[in-house]
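Module 6 notes. Inverse folding takes a fixed backbone as the condition and produces residue identities as the prediction. Think of it as a translation problem where the source language is geometry and the target language is the twenty amino acids. Below is one complete input and output pair. Work through it position by position during the lab.
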């Protein structure tokens, strides 16, 4: 949580120069239902990383996550982005998150065995924003 808050703070303080962009989804009275944090990957041309996406537990499964992800993709395209990468863990508890990314058109392009700890791989999902809608 500390790391997640840190990138939002950096974006609030430094704007896009921080390397992070945060978008939120709110209800009609301005209560934040979820957020997504993404930014250009340093030393690449047109590659972006999605660092965090989260929806309030009471609002999960209602399509807010897909709307946040679609919004982030549109913002990345506006900035000339051609590829969006998402890293996650292979732990069973991430199965529904992985399903969420696959539903949104992301493909598993890399796996680093034992990256987080023995038996817990790093999975890298990617979406080509030039060919995908
Ligand atoms: C992953 C997450 C952002 C998805 O947002 P969401 O608003 O719940 O998802 P949506 O309603 O847009 O999409 C629902 C789809 O996502 C999947 N999903 C993933 N996590 C889910 C959850 N906790 N509750 C319901 N559906 C979930 C469902 O399988 C569903 O697929 P289906 O349409 O085929 O049934 C959200 O569940 C969440 O914040 N999870 C905890 C934090 C997390 O894991 N973040 C990603 C790693 S940084």
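Target side of the pair, the amino acids:
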């Amino acid at each position: 949580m500390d790391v997640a808050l840190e990138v939002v703070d950096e974006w609030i303080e430094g704007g896009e120069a921080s390397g992070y962009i945060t978008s939120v989804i709110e209800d009609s009275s301005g209560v934040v239902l979820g957020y997504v944090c993404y930014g250009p990957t340093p030393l690449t041309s047109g590659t972006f990383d999605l660092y965090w996406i989260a929806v309030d537990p009471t609002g999960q499964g209602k399509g807010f996550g897909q709307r946040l992800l679609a919004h982030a993709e549109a913002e990345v395209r506006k900035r000339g982005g051609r590829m969006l990468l998402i890293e996650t863990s292979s732990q069973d508890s991430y199965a529904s998150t992985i399903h969420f990314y696959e539903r949104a058109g992301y493909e598993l392009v890399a796996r680093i065995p034992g990256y987080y700890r023995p038996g817990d791989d790093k999975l890298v999902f990617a979406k080509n924003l030039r060919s995908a809608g």
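Reference fact for the lab report: The radius of gyration is 15 Å.
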